[in-house]
Amino acid sequence: MPAGPPSHRRVRLGLALRDARNAVGPRGMSQVDAAEQAGMSQPKLAKLENAHIVRIKMDDLNRLIALYGIDDAQAEELRRFARSPYSESGTFVETSPNAAWWQKHEEVERDARVINAVHLQAHDGLLQSEEYMRRQFELGGAVSVEPKIRTRLARQRAILMQDSPPDCTFILDQACLHTDMGDPIMMAAQLRHLLALSDLPHITILVKPFGAAFPAATYGWTFLKFDSVLMRDFVSVQYEVGAATIDDDEALRLFQTRWEQIRGAALSEVDTRKLIRRVLTDTVKKAKGL
Hints:
Elements: H1 8-22, H2 31-38, H3 42-49, H4 58-68, H5 72-83, E1 91-94, H6 106-110, E2 114-119, H7 130-139, H8 145-160, E3 167-173, H9 174-178, H10 184-197, E4 203-208, E5 221-225, E6 234-239, E7 242-246, H11 249-265, H12 269-287
Parallel strand pairs: 2-3, 3-4
Antiparallel strand pairs: 1-7, 2-5, 5-6, 6-7
Helix pairs in contact: 2-3, 4-5, 7-8, 7-10, 10-12
Pfam family, one: HTH_31
Domain HTH cro/C1-type: 17-75
GO molecular function: DNA binding
């Protein structure tokens, strides 16, 4: 077992290989069969998928790529991940419709011991009610809205309702409470949902009020922290057409400092709940045309 945690690139390499193996044929391919056909042992393949191999032989990787039928673009990405040092830190920028790669693999979030998130306009996906999701997807022009909703609800259950969930703290700008996307009835349901979630012992929801003495920010971000043997801590900064995943030690220290600053500028849990209730009252009146 390597001494230090793997970078998110190595974790992603292992997850991608596992997904590709499971996508072979109508029922996927077992680790035993894949290892035999690729000319390696099953324990070695398991370590590769679990990011427990420090040095990856490119010949081994190329045989797996050919066996699984991975396309050229993804294959080159996987080779780049394999060439990166095991514990290399830095910033990985991705442009794709599914840029938050770790959200596709719930075990990454499930294994986090802490999830800290800052949001300026939209509510975090883990906090969204079904009505809020639907409105957001529909206005965003998404196709196949219902499957997207089912996927997000399943992710919420897997992360927030597991036996040992992460300690989650979400800081929302007050603007999040007022951005009803033209549907105050939906927003009233979302605000009630926030109040219900804030009753759970592992979920803390705080609001940074409009008048807080804090520098204006242009983006939100999520900070995931892990036990050291699993993988490196990282920050994900998401934007319209992609995301940056950051696990550089100095950058993480800066994000931790910024987190402490914004948490200090936010309302307390008690005052946050009071504010949400006031906004809920106003939103209900708006929905009724009062």
